[in-house]
């Protein structure tokens, strides 16, 4: 049985594009989270909204960092 080399499901050309998009999306949600924390009074805060914004921001920034590393040639 011959070994078949692994090929990525996403072409290497798209790594920087994905890195840029995920980082922009992550920073947008992060900025929205920070602004909502600074401007909302304590009586009107919604924990579900805060956790949703934080989760989306952290996931997007994590994927953005992953693709930044891949685009830089650091294969993790």
Automatic annotation (TrEMBL):
GO cellular component, one term: oligosaccharyltransferase complex
Cell compartment(s), UniProt: Membrane
GO biological process, alphabetically ordered: protein N-linked glycosylation
Signal peptide positions on this chain: none
Membrane topology: Multi-pass membrane protein
Keyword Transmembrane part of the UniProt annotation: yes
Domain of life: Eukaryota
Keyword Methyltransferase: no
Entries under Pfam families matching the protein: Ost5
Membrane spanning stretches: 12-35, 47-75
Keywords: Membrane, Transmembrane, Transmembrane helix
Assembly and oligomerization: Component of the oligosaccharyltransferase (OST) complex.
Stated role: Subunit of the oligosaccharyl transferase (OST) complex that catalyzes the initial transfer of a defined glycan (Glc(3)Man(9)GlcNAc(2) in eukaryotes) from the lipid carrier dolichol-pyrophosphate to an asparagine residue within an Asn-X-Ser/Thr consensus motif in nascent polypeptide chains, the first step in protein N-glycosylation. N-glycosylation occurs cotranslationally and the complex associates with the Sec61 complex at the channel-forming translocon complex that mediates protein translocation across the endoplasmic reticulum (ER). All subunits are required for a maximal enzyme activity.
Family label: Belongs to the OST5 family.
Protein name (Swiss-Prot/TrEMBL): Dolichyl-diphosphooligosaccharide-protein glycosyltransferase subunit OST5
Organism in which the protein naturally occurs: Dictyostelium firmibasis
